Amino acid sequence: MLTIYNTLSRNKEVFTPIEPGKVRMYVCGMTVYDFCHLGHARVMVVFDMVARWLRASGLDVTYVRNITDIDDKIIRRAQENGETIRQLTDRFIAAMHEDADALGVLRPDHEPRATDYVAQMQSLISRLEQKGLAYVAANRDVCYAVRKFDGYGKLSGKSLDELRAGERVDVAQDKNDPLDFVLWKHAKTEEPGEVKWASPWGEGRPGWHIECSAMSSDLLGDHFDIHGGGMDLQFPHHENEIAQSEGAHGHTFVNYWMHNGFVRVDDEKMSKSLGNFFTIREVLQKYDPEVVRFFILRAQYRSALNYSDAHLEDARSSLTRLYTALKNVPVEGAVEVDWNEAHAKRFRVAMDDDFNTAEAVAVLFELANEVNRSISPGLARQLKALGGVLGLLERDPVAFLQAGTPDAGGLDAATIESRIAARAAAKKARDYAEADRIRAELTEAGVILEDGPGGTTWRRA
């Protein structure tokens, strides 16, 4: 049985869908004012893996990942660039899709933009107001009255007194209580017209937290199975989503809360404020996209992921070992997992244990060793099929082994092939010194030659 670590209960729980055979999952997506960074890549890859495994387990999954296309940072960046909000957000949504596609991330079933759901957000706010959970503050923002919702803090495990002690006094200027948060922001005169919507409370725009409550309930219903996101969203964003949704509807919002761990650089959380973040496209200038996906998946999703060139190089070497096994025992045509085979059974046990991809990847290496030892086409097909469950090992092995990256430098494929031909000619002429010199030249350029009965093949080191 599949178990999931539920952040709400702080325990692994057996996963039981609300509707047998079907799963409804919502994941908080990106705020699109800049290029996605490696932390975003982890969210995208992790929950892509979760959706893939749920489907591989025979479940019908509806996966929603939203896009925040209106907030203060977006407004500020568009004004700095001298462009409209829509021009900015369209550009970075396209860039996000490019990055996700490169990483082998399948598109969600629904990818709602916040600006398309303002009416639903206003309806939810009105409902909260009618229940006495929302009020119009002195500055004409509409705020949520946190102390009127029993159970606030249950996701983060913090009491109201603990939360109050951590607040700055100045944030309470226009609110009834410093803990209260904004549901609807009253329009500022200097803001562009495209971020002003008519509402019962005057022109304005939605707060951040209300977006996900409105979009998730509209697409998945007001009670669904899984809600995911990065660990940094646990508080206040997801805590506030619970308060809004359960306050409005009067029942449980989500059954299982999942949060992936931080990406860290030199033992510090990767963040723009620290200046230690890397965009996905910066990383892909140096490393093959599948190497980056493998790097993310070989760590258990709740653990910290330590980024460094050394770790990426190790991931590249490890993935090369798997592809080398497939190169030596070629697989043709479509492949399907034989779930009765021993390695597949261990793979399933690992994945059913809270999506433990670290153990599942270890099974892939055991299987690769068996392929190398036995030269078994059946086991090679099993290796490729199990890798495919994780979105790995789906390329032609030779193409992967010979692939370069923009910043890798070195020789292109045509030059390498011409040097191999020159080496073959030197050997035929018994000029072994020249043949050895060419091999050494290619080795220095990061190209490994492998001589076999069928001739010489090559791969990048």
UniProtKB/TrEMBL annotation:
Keywords: Aminoacyl-tRNA synthetase, ATP-binding, Cytoplasm, Ligase, Metal-binding, Nucleotide-binding, Protein biosynthesis, Zinc
Location of this chain's protein in the cell: Cytoplasm
GO biological process: cysteinyl-tRNA aminoacylation
Pfam family, one: DALR_2
Motif 'KMSKS' region, residue numbers: 269-273
Motif ('HIGH' region) on chain: 30-40
Annotated Cysteinyl-tRNA synthetase class Ia DALR domain residues: 346-401
Reactions that this protein is recorded to catalyse: tRNA(Cys) + L-cysteine + ATP = L-cysteinyl-tRNA(Cys) + AMP + diphosphate
Similarity section: Belongs to the class-I aminoacyl-tRNA synthetase family.
PANTHER family according to UniProt: CYSTEINE--TRNA LIGASE, CYTOPLASMIC, CYSTEINYL-TRNA SYNTHETASE
Subunit structure: Monomer.
Protein name (Swiss-Prot/TrEMBL): Cysteine--tRNA ligase
Biological source species: Thauera humireducens
Organismal lineage: Bacteria, Pseudomonadati, Pseudomonadota, Betaproteobacteria, Rhodocyclales
